[in-house]
Write a structure and sequence with these properties.
single chain, 106 residues
């Protein structure tokens, strides 16, 4: 069964970039212990867009959904004292890994 990749494209205004990056840095470790989790990257735009990409890779769609319904949902719920979102919009893209390559060892 191929791994699945989820990419969350977040529209982030210039004045919220540092806020978003700090929030992701402070959550370090929050997803890494989830069953089926394989990889995470936060990608900062360099030019031509305001969209950050949050890349996660999972062993299966079921593992991703279990994380969404458990730890992720719990982390994003809360009382009225939560800070406003740093992103002004979000889209989630889903992919299956059909090919991959790693660097060759010398």
């Amino acid at each position: 069964m191929p791994s699945v990749v989820k990419i969350n494209a977040l529209a982030v205004p210039d004045d919220q970039r540092e806020v978003l990056e700090q929030r992701f840095a402070s959550r370090a470790g929050a997803v890494e212990s989830s069953d089926g989790f394989e990889w995470f990257e936060l990608l900062r735009p360099v030019e031509g867009t305001d969209q950050y990409l949050v890349y996660t890779r999972w062993r299966s769609e079921e593992d991703f959904q279990a994380w969404m319904e458990g730890p992720m949902k719990a982390a994003h719920q809360g009382g009225g004292d939560r800070p406003k979102p740093a992103a002004s919009g979000s889209q989630v893209w889903s992919f299956e890994v059909v090919q991959q390559a790693a660097p060759k060892k010398a």
